[in-house]
Each structure stands twice: as C-alpha cells, then as structure tokens.
TrEMBL record:
The gene is thyA. Catalyzes the reductive methylation of 2'-deoxyuridine-5'-monophosphate (dUMP) to 2'-deoxythymidine-5'-monophosphate (dTMP) while utilizing 5,10-methylenetetrahydrofolate (mTHF) as the methyl donor and reductant in the reaction, yielding dihydrofolate (DHF) as a by-product. This enzymatic reaction provides an intracellular de novo source of dTMP, an essential precursor for DNA biosynthesis. It comes from Sandaracinobacter neustonicus. GO terms for biological process: dTMP biosynthetic process; dTTP biosynthetic process; methylation. This is Thymidylate synthase. It catalyses: dUMP + (6R)-5,10-methylene-5,6,7,8-tetrahydrofolate = 7,8-dihydrofolate + dTMP. DUMP binds at residues 14, 148-149, 193-196, 204, 234-236. It is found in: Cytoplasm.
Length: 290
C-alpha cells in the first residue's frame, strides 16, 4: 500500500475518480499454520466476504440473495443501471428495499449479468453445453493431483459485454504438493487484473485464502500457500484518509480460521467459519468508485 501510494503513477481511470497505480505485484501468505490473510489495519467485514464467496460458488449473479443477507457491496452497479435506464433516482436504501420486496423487480434490476458465479459454474460452450469449472477443478484436484491444469477463470471474452463489471479476481490456479510426512498440501494462485487496494483487496485475498481452505478440506489436503498476483494495483485518490490511517497503524497478527466440515464445497455457509484472534484496528469508511 505504501509503495502504491508513494511510487504509483497518477492516472485517470474509468470511474473518473483517479488512482495511483503500480503494475505487477506479488504477495505470498502461508496458510499451513491455520492463519488467514485478513487485514488488521482496519476492520474488514469478513462475514460479508464469506457470504460473497458462498454466493459465487452457488453460481448466483443477482444481488438479491446478498441484499437479503445484509451485504451491500454489489448494490451500486445495478442501481446505476436502473437509474440510467429509467431516470428514476431511488436512494440506495429504497432501491434495496424494492429488490427485497419485489421479486420481478429484482429479477430485472438486481441482475449483474454473466459475472463470476455464471462463469464459475455454468460457462456456456459453443455447443450449448455448460461447463462447471468448480466441479471439474474438484475432480482434477482429487483424481489427478499432479496436473498443471487446475485452473478456473471468469474471463469469458464472449460474455464480457453483458457483465456489470468484467472479473477483477479473474483466474485461479492450484498446485498439490506431495509430502511424505503428512497430507499433501494445496496451494493457490490468484491472478487479479485490477485491484482496488483500499476496498476490494481485503475481501479478495481473504476469499482466495478461504477458498484454498475449503478446497483442501474437500479433497483431504492440508492448506499450503495463497499467492496473489496483481496487475493494475491501485489506490483511489479519494481514499487518502483510509490509506494514511492504515499506514500509520501497527499491523497485528493474522487470525486463525477454522472451518467445520461440510457435505460438499457448495454446502459451506457462514456458520462453518470461525475466526479466532481477529483484533483489528477500527473500521474506516471510504467511498467506492462505481
Ligand atoms: N471500485 C471498486 N472497488 C471494488 O473493490 C469493487 C468494485 N469497484 N466493484 C465490484 C466489487 C464490489 N466490491 C466492493 C464494493 C464495496 C466495498 C465496500 O464498500 N466495503 C466497505 C463496507 C463493507 C460492508 O459494508 O460490508 C468496507 O469498509 O470494506 C467492498 C468491496 C469489490 N468490487
Ligand atoms: O473483486 C473486486 C472487484 C473489483 N475491484 C475493483 C478494481 C477496480 O478498482 C474496479 C473495477 O474497475 P475496472 O475498470 O473494471 O478495472 O473494481 C476489486 O479490486 N476487486
């Protein structure tokens, strides 16, 4: 964060807010001791992150189930579309209330298009067949651990145009490391093409680590590492307060995550996730660039 803030090049971006950005970064976090990379220099609403990951894994692309669970992070995009299309200016609360109360409205205006969930679980092939990349991944991890093809991606070129936003955390790859002195170890790499370090990153890295933990648990492996590769890694210029406050704070130890057993990868819920030792500095509000 300090590097991006002090060395990043200032540029205009799609949202009009402006960023400082560096291109190409890598971070590695060891998951083998049960800890997870959950930022401590501000409080991260990790329960929302768990719910978002569960929503991706369920193949969902409509904000309604998120809003029903009190998760507001995706509301601004469909709200913007509704506003531009109808000229109606509902407040965010009113828009969410309508999404909750009116199923037909939610079906029309809560939809983000063929975003993550669709591509992960129902990638549409040229022959009309859908591909469940996550089921295929589970099967290759279990049955062909030495494979170099343990990959799934949200970057479906043919469908980018229909998405509210093209995927940011776009490609995931896994590696099973054989060990003689214990269970084999599962590591993951996340390639993120565009990273909002202030708001998106804390969710993205935590969810990527949690997904390694879930996959490892489902396949009988021990967790190894999560490696994060960021391409356009940026801080929004209107996040100065957030950045300076976080940089002035002393990082604290990462919490430990325990995951109770679930019948399948698709049966995990918030209730399966327990964090111990999460003692962050206070939350910092910051505007999201739409
Ligand atoms: N500019 C931008 N940054 C993002 O991180 C981002 C997007 N756009 N568009 C799509 C999704 C939505 N994401 C978001 C959106 C908002 C928050 C956010 O406002 N977080 C606050 C409140 C969290 C809460 O209420 O649970 C935070 O303090 O983390 C986080 C991630 C991540 N993505
Ligand atoms: O999971 C996410 C989703 C989005 N972001 C950020 C990265 C950018 O700031 C915007 C997307 O804008 P683009 O112009 O499409 O790059 O959202 C994130 O960090 N993590």
């Amino acid at each position: 964060m300090r590097q991006v803030w002090t060395k990043g090049s200032e540029r205009r971006d799609r949202t009009g807010v402006g960023t400082r950005a560096l291109f190409g970064a890598m971070l590695r976090f060891d998951l083998s001791d049960g800890t997870v990379p959950l930022i401590t220099t501000k409080r991260v609403f990790w329960k929302s992150a768990v719910k978002e990951l569960v929503w991706f894994l369920a193949g969902q692309t409509n904000i309604r189930p998120l809003v029903q669970q009190g998760v507001h992070i995706w509301t601004d995009w469909p709200m913007e579309r509704h506003r531009n299309a109808t000229g109606e200016t509902l407040s965010r609360d009113a828009f969410e209330a309508r999404i909750l109360s009116d199923e037909a409205f939610a079906a029309e205006w809560g939809e983000l298009g063929p975003v993550y969930g669709k591509q992960w679980r129902r990638w549409l092939g040229p022959d009309g067949q859908t591909h469940d990349q996550i089921e295929a991944l589970l099967s290759s991890l279990k049955n062909n651990p030495a494979s170099r093809r343990h990959i799934f991606t949200g970057w479906n070129v043919a469908e980018l145009g229909g998405m509210a936003l093209p995927p940011c955390h776009m490609t995931y790859q896994y590696f099973v490391e054989p060990r003689s002195d214990g269970p084999d170890r599962l590591s993951g790499i996340l390639y993120q093409r565009s990273c909002d370090l202030g708001l998106g990153f804390p969710f993205n890295i935590f969810e990527a680590a949690l997904l390694v933990r879930m996959l490892a648990a489902q396949c009988g492996y021990a967790p190894g590492e999560i490696i994060w590769m960021g391409a356009d890694v940026h801080l929004y210029l209107n996040h100065a307060h957030l950045v300076e406050t976080m940089l002035a704070r002393e990082p604290r130890p990462f919490p430990t995550l325990s995951l109770s057993p679930a019948a399948s990868l698709f049966d995990y819920r918030l209730e399966h996730v327990t964090l111990t030792g999460y003692d962050p500095h206070p939350a910092i509000a910051a505007p999201v660039a739409v």
